[in-house]
Amino acid sequence: TLPDDKSNYVHRIGRVGRAERMGLAISLVAAIPEKVWYHGEWCPSRGKNCHNTNLTDVRGCCMWYNEPQYLADIEEHLGVTIQQVDTNIKIEADEFDGKVVYGQKKAASGSGYEGHSSQLASTVAMLHDLETMAQDNYLRRFYKKSVKA
């Protein structure tokens, strides 16, 4: 999930590479805005057994979380385009493949490095499946009918 404040993104992903070491950050971003729980001081239970699905502007406990817009804001803030993968979860090779070992010093050689695509493909696919299942379960419960994949 992307932070709703674009300046927090740099702080968050900065934790993957420290002390002159390379890191790789992966953010899973929804393709469309999602209605999510947001319990504030107005919620007497602060989320426990809360069923108030009204939006926060009418004292509800939900808000629209617009990750596509947050991603655009972050890219504008950084002045870059963040690499994205398609729904097939194929990760393109980039200029770092074979040249660095994540967690190693930048100057170190990357002998034996497989590339981040092959290292992360199964994990990213599993995360994709879990996200799909979570969204399907929510929609089934919300609409109380079967959702076709």
Summarize the structure.
32% of the residues lie in helices and 5% in strands. It is mainly α and 149 residues long. 5% of the residues are buried.
Feature tags:
149 residues; mainly alpha; 3 helices
Structure, described:
The structure is a single chain. Strands 1-2 form a two-stranded antiparallel sheet. It contains three helices and two strands; from the N terminus they run αββαα. It has helices at 6-13, 67-78, 116-143, and strands at 34-37, 62-65. Helices cover 32% and strands 5% of the residues. The mean pLDDT is 75.
SSE arrangement:
Elements: H1 6-13, E1 34-37, E2 62-65, H2 67-78, H3 116-143
Antiparallel strand pairs: 1-2
User: Can you tell me the residue ranges where pLDDT is under 50 for at least 5 consecutive residues?
Assistant: none
Shape: globular
Q: Let me know the largest β-sheet.
A: 2 strands, antiparallel
The portion of residues forming beta strands comes to 5-15%
The span between the termini is: 22 Å
In the sheet with the most strands, the strands line up as 1-2
Number of helices: 3
Mean model confidence by pLDDT: 75
Instruction: Specify Rg, calculated over alpha carbons.
Output: 19 Å
| Helical amount | 25-40%
The secondary-structure class comes to mainly alpha
Give the total of beta strands. Answer: 2
Q: Secondary-structure element sequence?
A: HEEHH
